[in-house]
Each structure stands twice: as C-alpha cells, then as structure tokens.
Records
---
Amino acid sequence: MSLGGIITAMATPFDGYGRVAEDAAVRLMHRLLDSGSDGLVLAGTTGEGTTLDDDEKCRLWERGVDECGEATVIAGTGSNDTAHSVHLTERATELGVDAVLVVTPYYNKPNRRGLVAHFRAVAEATDRPVILYNIPSRCVIDMPNDLLGELAQIDGIDAVKQARYEDLEPIDGLDLLAGNDDMLARVLDIGGTGGITVASHLVGEEMRRMIDEPESRSALHDSLSDLFGALAVTSNPIPLKAALNLLGFDVGGLRLPMVEASDEETALVRGALERQGLLPQRSPV
C-alpha cells in the first residue's frame, strides 16, 4: 500500500484519574477523520505512547480498527528494546492495523549495524508496512539518507516519517512523510506522499488542501505557520492538549513526566487559535 495523505498523530485523551478515556478517544478519531485526516497514528509520540502500557496501546489500536472504516490506522510500536518492539508489532498485526510506525531506538544509541538488525527484526514480525521514524531531536541518533536507502531494501519497510530538516530528499523505495507540521509543504514539493502531523487536530482541512491544491500550498503554509509555531512552544503534546481543551474537546491532562502547559504557554496557544479564527478574539481589558 502507498502511505500518504494527512495522517494525524492522535493525542490520547485521559480522564480525571489519568486513565485512557476510550470513549473520548473514539470521538476524537471520528472528529479527525471528518475534518481532513486520511488516517491516524495511535499510541505514537503525540499519543504519549511512552507512558501507555501494552494493554492500553492494544485497546486503542483495537478501537481504531473497529471505528475507522477505510481510513488508515497506524500503530506506534517502536521502542528502544527490539524484543518489545517485535512483541508490540505482532500484537498490532493481530488486531488488524494497516501499518506500524517504528521510532529509531532511543537512549541506548545503537550503531548502524544495530539499527539495521533492529528494523529487520520488526519487519520480519509483520506482514504490514513498516514506517521508519527518524527523529534525531528526541532519539539522539540520526539515520542518514544512505542508511535509509539500505533499510528500504528490507522487505516490508515501505516509508519513512522524516523529522530531520537537514539533507531532506526522497529515498528510493520509501514513501516520504513529513515528520513535522512545518515540513509538510517542503516534503510535498520534493515528491513526498504526505505527512504524519499534529496541527491537523485543529486545521486538518487546510492541511489536506496543501496536498490537493499544490498551487495554493505556499500560501496555505504561510497562513498556518503561526499555529505551527505555537504548537511547538514546548514539548509535544503539551501545547496540543492545551489547544484541544481550550476548544472544548476534553482530552484531559498528561502523564508525568509531561506536565500541563504553563499560563504563559497557554496564552501563546490561545493567541494563535484566536488569530487562526478557531477561538473568538478576547475583548481587551
């Protein structure tokens, strides 16, 4: 399958006790698919996958498969432990997801041979497409383009979510997906197939237009840049959850070590939502 379009890395709603709020998650799934998203990543970085236990992840994937119809459901199954990544990938495959997103192993900092062995083991554990997730800002190491090209030769590795700004180029054998919102226009311009995005929680239809209306892409990017910046004021998904809660979509708080947005961060997010027309402008005091 070709992997592309606007794929939203969905936030995971929590209730007042910090438990996964499954019904709220299902409502959010439908809202996103009704407002420009072609698919969802469940239990990825934005979904606070690192603080979800395996059963919570599996329930999200199961609900996604049940609820999302023809939309693409992608499970975030990566970790810094190959055996655990394989186990999660096997469970996600059994539940019927369409693809898996596998982040570069973090903290233990494998060398090139270790990276190849890791991703090969995951690819051998499933018959679903594997999306590599290259995000050196979080994982310490970067997979250069020649390594991505080598990984593309492994059966089942079909795409890369690229969150590195430098040396951005298509990789033969891999669908190229923007890994950051502000990269989407550039990735599309060089032949990428779409993006795994965060701002599509809020402006999914506009981001979908960046794919459908290439002649308007630059102007759309410029019109959304303020919002992209606000959602990057601190670590994702802190600003996103602040935005969703401000807009009346109750996604709850975050799990430690993530903490809720400060007053200053919330004010910055609110201002961007107002300027985007998503919230009414406050009257000056």
Note: DSSP finds eleven helices and eight strands in the chain.
---
Amino acid sequence: MWQLAQNITFVHPEILWLLAVLPLLAGWYYRKYKRRYPVLTLSNLQILQHTSSLRGSLRSLLPVMRILALATLIVALARPQQTLKEEEIKAEGIDIALVMDLSSSMLAQDFQPDRLEVSKRVAADFIDKRPYDRIALSVFSGEAFTQCPLTTDHAVVKSFLAELECGLLEDGTAIGMGLATSVNRLKDSDAKSKVIILLTDGVNNAGYIKPLTAAEIAKEFDIKVYTIGVGSAGEALTPVSRRSDGRYIYGLARVEIDEELLNTIATSTGGKYFRATSAESLEAIYAEIDQLEKTEMEITSIKRYSEEFRAFAWYGLLLILLELLLRYTVLRTIP
C-alpha cells in the first residue's frame, strides 16, 4: 500500500493515476463551453456592466462540480484506509518440538489422574507462555510419528495435545525413534535456536534407531535437547496387562527410568536432564526451560485499519446528484 499522508494508506494506489486524466477532462469541458457560448465582441462594455447574474455564475461551476465528483470517486475506488495501530515490539521466538511418550506406563497413577494427563496439561501451559514460538508435536511408544508439524497456531497444537492417549501406537518405549522424528522436523529450520523437549517415563526397549545415534544427529543440526524423566521413586500403580476389551489391568510396578541415557542425550546436545517426581516438579521444570530458552526477535504487530472510502464515495455521489439537479432544473438551458 502507498502512503499519501500520515496514517493514511491506499489498498489500490494504482487507481489514483486516473486523477491525471481530470485536467484533460477539464480542458475538454472548457473548449466545449467556448464553442457553445461564443464571445460577442463589442466596442464598449459599459452597457453590460450590470448584466451578470447569479444563475450565470452558478452555471460555470457545473463542470467544476463534475470534475470534483469524479476525483472523489477515484479516491474512493483506491480504497483509502487509516492506520489505527502499528507497533514494533521485541519478543522471544524459537522453534520447539515437544516429544511425548505414549507407552502404557504413562498411565501410571503416581501422578493424578495419571502421568500422561499431567504431562499434557503442563505442556499446554508451557505452550501458552511461548506465544511467538513455532511448536511441533511428536509422539512415540514402540514406534513414533509427528502429530503436528511446526506451526505458530498454538490452538491447533494444543488440540492435538489434548487428544493424545495411550494405545494409539504399538506399545514399547522407542526413545531413539521419538527423538529422530522430532529432529527431522527441526533440521531444515532457519531459526536461530532449535529445541527439543523429550518426555518419557521408561527405558528404551524398541525402535531401530538408537537414542544416542539420534542425539548425534540432533547435535549435527545444532538442536538442543532437554530430557525429562517422569515418575515417582519406588513403585507405582501401573498397567501390567490388558483385557480383551482393551481395558488395562493395574498393579504395582517398579518405576524404571534410564536417567543415565537421558542425561547423556541432553548434555551431548547442550541441553539438560530433569527428573519430575510430581506434578509440581514437572511444572517447575517447564518453567526453568522457559527461562533458559529466550531468543530476542523483532515482531511487527498486526495493523488495524479503518475504512475511509465510504465518505469519499458519498461526497462524490452527492456532487453528481447536485450537479444533475441544478443542470436540469434551476440552471437548465434551452438549446
């Protein structure tokens, strides 16, 4: 859009070139007027000193009114707008991939109601705190896939996050597959900072990509990995088998998390390993990651406009109607 004056812009500025035609039109009107009303040459104008009338003066204004009407309509067609708000702000924005474990052990009830529901809620709160980030969501159990690619539409990410449930994939814990899937989503990103937050509650026991191999790939693409081990110490009420109708049978089972592996993955990529033994500690972990990952970027806020073309259109139509009314009533001439 082309700026005419402070806070005034045009959506279709090319239409304003039609204003250049108006002087030509004014010249055409003038020549037409001179031909229709020829000049009478007299030797002495004294007898005509007081013959001018208001009606004659107004008639000469009719072409001017038409030109002005066309000018205002051309401006209206160019669609003038007034900028109501435009503000440049500083904000943090990075690319983040959330990787969520969906193995059946995530239904353990040492978190209330279970590890998965708490992890989903805390992750959603974390997303709300990162309004300028692009966020992706990947999941894994015995296999892995991308639930949502990188996007700034956080409502979509949270919608996918809310729908996550155990049993969607083959059971198991393929940490390497989950990490590799998220790396694949971030590797082509041009963001200055790329981060993966991998959350799991178990030991790698599935998948054809080793976790440390996936970590090496992440490091190669300058992707930082934060790992979170979820689960209380000791034993927890955990799914131990499944009925024919799909419902889980719960029993006490020892909480086993490969903390050494998760710590190696994190430190090798410049990240950090965290252990969450409660909902509160998980919230604190996401809060710490939120503080650790701050990248300043400049963002121009969305502009708000008010449409100003209506006033020009009404003025143009009013001038045309007034000109026609005067031309064919009060100022009418007989050919």
Note: The chain has two domains: 2-86+302-328, 90-299.
---
Amino acid sequence: MKTIYLAGGCFWGMQKFFDQFGGVIGTQVGYANGPDKAPSYEEVCRDSGHAETVRIDYDEARLSLTKLLESYFTVIDPLSVDRQGEDRGVQYRTGVFYTDEAQLPEIRAVFERETEKAGRELAVLLEPLRNFFPAEEYHQKYLDKNPGGYCHIPKKFFHMEGAAETK
C-alpha cells in the first residue's frame, strides 16, 4: 500500500472523485501543510494556513501513482492560485504532498507533462507532507451524506466509466 496527499480545492469533491477508483483502498479528508497545530474547520476558513487535502491510500499493484495524478489534473485548474471553482482562499490551494521520496521521479514526470500541456508554470505545489490533521467527522464522505452539496468538480466526474480500470 502507498499513500499520497492531494490538495485540489474543496476536499469533499476530491474525496468523492478518488473513492470511485479501483485500487483506492481508502481516503480521508483533512488539513495539511499548515502550522503544527490541528485546526478546526472554522480556523481553516479564517486562513490558518492549512490546505484542504485528501489522503489517498492505494494499492500500487492495481493503480499507479501516474494514473492517480493524471486523474487529479483532470479535475483541477492547475494554473489557478488559491482557488478552484467558486472556492477562494489559501485553504483551496492545489498541491501534491508526498511522504516517500521514491515517488518523486513519477510525480515529476507527470508535472513535466502537465506543464508542457499548460504552456507555463503550474500553480500546483509539490512538497513533502509536513503535517496532516484529519477533518471533523461530518466532512468525511460529505458528498455521499449530502448529495446536493456544492462542489467545483462537475458531477459527471463522479461516475467515470472505466474508473475501476486504472493500471
């Protein structure tokens, strides 16, 4: 099992999006790479410095990190700074946060391809994970509990044909 942390705007939709993939063992939403103190959601909304992030545990024999990251780039605007959709603020910044340096060559290869596609430098951070604090329980699987909840990711991306075919 491997783990990667992805910040892509509101974490509700990012979690729902990645939960559909075969090879994803589990996801958890939380707050990453801010001060070393567990924040409340209210503190995050008042610019605590943390990014809304989804922790993704995946089976690398069934799902490659490359496929995960390519899918991530389909549901974010990689050129937008501190904003995705109508969500604005530092907590909505985009980023790939890793805990295993062995993942870096694969991550960098995806970043290079995405930068080439975009034609300019991406606004997506690439950093080691400094900290991750699980979000409150009511945020976990939020869009499953509240199907009408707002999300910057179009609903069609929550039912992608072939998402289970991921290697």
Note: The helical segments are 11-19, 41-45, 65-74, 104-118, 142-145.
